[in-house]
Structure formats: C-alpha cells, structure tokens
Amino acid sequence: MSPAIPILYTDDALLVINKPSGLHTLPDGYDASLPHVRSLLEPEYGRLWIVHRLDRETSGVLALARSAEAHRHLNTQFAEHSIHKIYHALVLGEPDWKTHTISLPLSTNRGHRHRTVVDKRHGKPAVTHLRVLARYGLYTLIEAAPETGRTHQIRAHLAALELPIAVDPLYGDGLPVRRADAVPQELPGLLPEPPVLTHLALHARSLAIIHPVSGETLAVEAPYPREWQELLHLLKRSRMR
C-alpha cells in the first residue's frame, strides 16, 4: 500500500509536500516498479518536475514544480544557494556546544555501501550549521542548516562528530528506538514493547524559497511524523522526572 502524502502548499506553479519516510523521491535504480513521489502524485496533479530530493528514509518538506518555467526558476535558486533549508535530527550523544559549524569536504558513493565519507584530499567542500534544540540525556535534538547540498551531507557530518542520527543504518547502528531507551527509569513491562521509532530520525523541517510567479518569499514547515511526535513526547516527559 502506498503511503499517504500530506500536501503542505499548492498552486498553479508549485506543489509542496511532507514526504513520508521510506518513499523514494525519484524512481529506484534497481526496481522501477517501487512507488516514488511523481508516480503517486501525477495522476491527481498532472506533470511534475523534481527540483531537489530527499533521501528515501528522510521525511519532510519537498517542493515540486508544476511547470517547466517554475522548474527553471527553482533550479536557479538551488544553484545559487538562495534556498533556505532547515532539518531536524535526533542524534545519539550529547555535544558540548550549543551552536557549531562543521566544514569538512565530502566524497560520495564510496565503498560497497555507497556511503559519503570525509575526504580532506579529494572531497568537495561541504558546510553544515548546527544548533542544539533540546537535550534528552542519551539523545539530542539538533537543527541542521546545510550551506551546501552534498549527498548524505548532514548524516555524514554528524557521524564525523560522533553524533550519529538515531536509526541510521549507514552511519550509525541502525537500531530502532524503544520506549526503554527514551524512558530508562521506567520498569520494563512483562512483554517486549514495539519500537517507538523505526525510521531514520532526520526530518526536513522547513523550506524557504522565492515563489517563481509572485516573487515573494514562501516559507513552508512540515510537521513531524507521528513516530517522531510520540518519541519526543516520551523524551520530554523523561527529562521532567
């Protein structure tokens, strides 16, 4: 069954969605039959152009163009780095800083797992601005504003800081977050409880662009997925005890 796709904004030029985790932005290179953003939306909204992408496991704001002219306009904004993107990541670890800018060059598609790695000799420049939003003991909620747009940039940069994103199978342990992880002071139940979070804890929280027709700034924010909301509620409750 295809995941439902919440619509955050639409007009004749743009369609902005809250992409669910697990959904491909583009057709899968190994299995073209898997659902992707365009295949699910075009039957209702007509021809769509992909302007930028999110990793399959990343949820959040994704903008699509509804005309070739809007596509060209948005492509120019991305090329000129005038788009403002904010991500939220729940990481394992507790940084000793409130704000931090990481500037480490990255090489993509390395090794049999096709990871992005820090490569000071041959990598391309990559800059990510980080800010701590909340601390929850074992976990920290971090805002990440990428200045560049390398593949897996935020995931690789946080891993380089020894702050892997929760449930990241490529740059962390990939283990789901369970209730006992979020609220360790609770006594365990008689039966194993299902995981609270099973997807990569990286969410494209907001996107600000110049509207290709009106010329005005359009800022769109994507609510957290339900799993995120439940986990953050548990973490906040645990912190208050």
Describe the protein's architecture and organization.
The structure is a single chain. The mean pLDDT is 91. The protein has 241 residues and is an alpha+beta fold. It is built from five helices and twelve strands. The strands form two sheets. Strands 1, 2, 3, 4, 5, 6, 9, 10, 11 and 12 form a ten-stranded mixed β-sheet that branches.
How large a portion of the residues is in β-strands, by DSSP E?
A: 25-35%
Query: What distance separates the N and C termini?
Result: 40 Å
The total beta strand count reads 12
**Portion of residues in helices?**
10-25%
Instruction: Compute the CA-based radius of gyration.
Output: 19 Å
- CATH topological fold name: Pseudouridine synthase
Query: What composes the largest sheet?
Result: 10 strands, mixed
CATH class: Alpha Beta
CATH-level-4 superfamily name: Pseudouridine synthase
Task: Report the CATH architecture.
Answer: 2-Layer Sandwich
Please mark out the parts with pLDDT under 50 across 5 or more consecutive residues, or reply none. none
If you average the pLDDT, what whole number results?
91
Class of secondary structure makeup = alpha+beta
Gross geometry: globular
Total helices: the number is 5
